[in-house]
Amino acid sequence: MSAGLEVADVFRHHGDVYRHAHDGHLGRVERRVMSAIELCRTAALGGHSEVCSDCGLVRCAYNSCRNRHCPKCQGQARAEWLEARQAELLPVPYFHVVFTLPAPVAEIAFQNKETVYAILFRTAAETLRKIAGDPRHLGAEIGVVAVLHTWGQNLHHHPHVHCVVPGGGPSPDGTRWIGCRPGFFLPVRVLSRLFRRLFLDELRAAFETGDLGFFSDLAYLAEPAAFSHQLRQMRQVEWVVYAKPPFGGPAQVLAYLGRYTHRVAIANSRLVTMTDTEVAFRWKDYRHHGKAKIMTLGVDEFIRRFLLHTLPDGFHRIRHYGFLANGHRAANLALCRKLLDMPPPNSTSSSPGEPVVHTLDRCPCCGGPMVLLGALPRPDPSRRSFRRDSS
């Protein structure tokens, strides 16, 4: 096993060959992601020198690319996002519901990422809110945190949305909190059928307004008759909606969100070996009860699969709905706390103006705080900067 192997190493060793081999088919977003990961925390992006105030260790700390597809750049972004979510947790059970697209629809999604992923978000949230709002099931307005993942353990394209949902919500008149039954949120079969109908209705609308494009093996779907036939077939199959058992408490909710919200297609820790021709990585085979296995792919195929999961510029992969929607979240949460007889959150996690010390700010030898010495400019000032992608 190669200690410290990273996706960046694969791109640095094999990226140029891959770019040359796929020059006519590699998009701007994919090229930028590859370049950002290759340069992340190297002298090419500049940085600073720092010294440990305890043991005197001096080191160079190079800047991160801050690209959301980079395995190295998610730790601090995750910590900052979770800190903001801490005060939003309510003292109620939380549930995890997953909405997955069938393979034929996933193929359409890959060729129309921005349009179809947005439909996936909207219809998953609308499904939850409609069923939860029905008095036969819950009769309450709920809140939803939704996170898009587009990969499976083997890096194939597998778009699905993870939804974390408080088990209850305010009544329609806002006068009382309505909680779900112990250990049960909403019926998944009902969720699945409504999700299928809402999604396919929106997909048809997108086709009729010319918002879908088809090429290569799917070019035939550009014909209205062929597209309608595909939709009819998709209405005949079961769509997978999976509801996991409720979390044990708010701490578990935060721990879960921390694992899911800022994931990338594959973590560096899963990489095992790299040769001149192959990359091996760990994966869990859920068809065999999550058994841990090693998968070996050709370098070209590994890079291809990783790049399947790049997102369009500005596309938000974390979204909030219901009483957690961004526009009125503070007021809605204040109402929820009032209905739950819950005190307002305090902000005593750190004193005003006191910086939060992250792992990267600690000395690797003794754990002492690192103190800035001076800046390390980029060797090539003309190189364009990498902006931070939207979440």
Instruction: Report strand order across the widest sheet.
Output: 8-3-5-4-12
* H/E element sequence: HHEEHEHHEEEEHHEHEEEHEHE
Outline the biggest β-sheet. Answer: 5 strands, antiparallel
The percentage of residues in β strands lies in 15-25%
Main structural class: alpha+beta
Task: List the SSEs and their pairings.
Elements: H1 7-21, H2 28-39, E1 47-52, E2 58-62, H3 74-86, E3 94-100, H4 103-111, H5 113-133, E4 143-151, E5 157-166, E6 168-170, E7 177-179, H6 188-208, H7 224-234, E8 241-244, H8 250-260, E9 271-274, E10 278-285, E11 291-298, H9 299-307, E12 318-322, H10 329-339, E13 370-376
Antiparallel strand pairs: 1-2, 1-13, 3-5, 3-8, 4-5, 4-12, 6-7, 9-10, 10-11
Could you explain how this protein is built, in words?
With 391 residues, this protein is of the alpha+beta class. The model is unreliable at 348-358 (pLDDT under 50). The radius of gyration is 23 Å and the shape is globular. It has 10 helices and 13 strands. The strands form 4 sheets. The protein has a 5-stranded antiparallel β-sheet, sandwiched between helices. A 3-stranded antiparallel β-sheet has the order 2-1-13, with no helix packed on it. Strands 9-10-11 form a 3-stranded antiparallel β-sheet. The longest helix is centred in the first third of the chain and has 21 residues, at 113-133. It is 34% helix and 20% strand. It has a domain at 88-265 and 308-339. Helix 4 packs across helix 5 (113-133). The protein starts with 6 loop residues before the first helix and ends in a 15-residue tail after the last strand. Strand 9 (271-274) and strand 10 (278-285) form a beta hairpin.
